[in-house]
Amino acid sequence: MLNKTLVNIEAFIDWSGRTVSWLSLLLVLVMFLVVVLRYVFDSGSIALQETTTYLHASVFLIGMAYTLQQDAHVRVDIFYSTFSKEKKAWVDLFGALFLLLPFMLFTSWVSWSYVLNSWSVLESSREAGGLPGVFLLKSLILVMTLLLSLQALTQIARNIKVILGTDSSKGSGQ
Fold first, then answer.
1. Which residues neighbour 27 within 8 Å (Cβ) at sequence distance 6 or greater?
2. Is 10 part of any domain?
3. In the predicted structure, residue 42 carries a pLDDT above the cut 90
4. Do the domain assignments include residue 71?
5. Domain range spanning residue 52?
6. Which stretches does DSSP call E strand in the chain?
7. What domain count does the chain have?
8. How far is CA 34 from CA 20, 49, 52, 104, in A?
């Protein structure tokens, strides 16, 4: 049952990462439109400019867990690359258990009132002609902490399996 739960969590994170990656294309198209409007037609749109911020934030905040799952975060691995599979599992276990999870819990705790206050007034842009859903954008902070926490838990379980010698699938960090 634990394996099925881990597979389902990782499948969801994989799906969310692949889905949100398409927003990068939309981001490029909106940025192109903003530039064309500004420099060719001498016109601008606050809503379009804010859309780039929303898209950029969405890609990063939702895509972080997927990036971690794919072991694609930047790492200074002077020593790590030479470690055995078991040693890598210990490092990844320590990192997820004592660094990533506590940081996600802290970020959730600090962000909770920030997001709730935004929802309580259905916060919108301060700019005339801006986008109305700032409260939704701020909510992505909590979505990010949830997704990264779920990915950390799957990594903890997988790394424990590697350390105990009961995992023959992907290596640590996967």
1. 52, 55, 56, 59
2. yes
3. no
4. yes
5. 2-164
6. none
7. 1
8. 21, 7, 9, 35
